[in-house]
Hints:
With 321 residues, the protein is α/β, with parallel strands linked by helices. The protein has 2 domains: 3-211, DHBP synthase (Alpha-Beta Complex); 240-316, Rossmann fold, CATH 3.40.50.11030. It has 8 helices and 14 strands. A hairpin with a 6-residue loop joins strand 9 (185-188) and strand 10 (195-198). The chain is globular and about 60 Å long. The site of magnesium ion (MG) has 3 residues, from loops.
Amino acid sequence: xxxALTHAHTASASPAAIAEGGHLLRDGRLVxxxxxxxxxxxxxxxxxxxxxAIFEAKGRPSFNPLIVHVADxxxxxxxxxxxxxARAVIARFWPGPLTLVLPRAxxxxxxxxxxxxxxxxAVRMPDHPIARALIRAAARPIAAPSANxxxxxxxxxxxxxxxxxxxxxxxxxxxxxxxxGVESTVLxxxxxxxxxxxxxxxPVEALEQALGATLIRPTDHADAPKxxxxxxxxxxxxxxxxxxxxxxxxxEALLALGPTEGTLNLxxxxxxxxxxxxxxxxxxALDRPEFTGIAIMPIPxxxxxxxxxxxxxxxxxxxxx
Length: 321
Ligand code: TXA
Ligand code: MG
């Protein structure tokens, strides 16, 4: 297998491909890899150039802070300051779809660009053997946003990454479909009170139970979005999106939930975990010029429905000019 790549190639994640991925990452190149949530666009989190290459590849309008991924929970000790609250949720939810925002450690090797200049760093241990094997092969923390161009829906298949980022990535490791299908929950433990910055794969209710505390919710501090990823219209298909639809208008596609005929159905049985796993792939499948828009049926506002509605509200938000 060659490492002098001019175009991305997609490889099934054999040990040889993972080893090549580790080599590319140490070289400052980008490698897309599967996690249990969505595919990540990985770069060496300790290398500013590699991190800049991530923003470049994503075409982000600004430097949103990135999540730094580790293979073992103990590996965050050198990066961030870990308190008892963090230890409690780590013991319960890692590896898994939970990202923790913690104060940057003294002498943390993480690129400041990766944290967009903040004095905090977001860290996560993904629950995916290919992700962890790749991070181990790189032997350094890996910064990885979702592996899509900025503003596009997050990729849950290797083919989505190839479509969205193509030649901008050195290597795409194919691990099949992502199990969870929505991004990790982002929990800010850098302040006195724990705050939810982004709903995601770990339900808020489970976090509140583990912490024995109510989380500050995004709506509680909506006028000062601490997580730039929370900005409206971050997850937008190119056709218009209409929420809480009961049926499709002429020309619209209908994305259904529950026992209804739709153009596509997130979950005929109304299972919100199944709906989350299908969400991005179905939005992408319906994001076609032959439709005037995508009409989406109401999603219950509990459990993973919170994360789904969060993404959908963003997809339906007015677009920046
Ligand atoms: O499931 C996931 O989290 C995926 C996979 C690849 O791990 N990654 C992902 O990364 O969704 P990204 O870059 O698309 O989203 C990172 C989120 C954003 O909302 C960002 O603003 C927030 O984490 N974030 C990162 N660092 C932060 C920090 N220091 N303070 C506050 N928010 C932060
Ligand atoms: Mg993203």
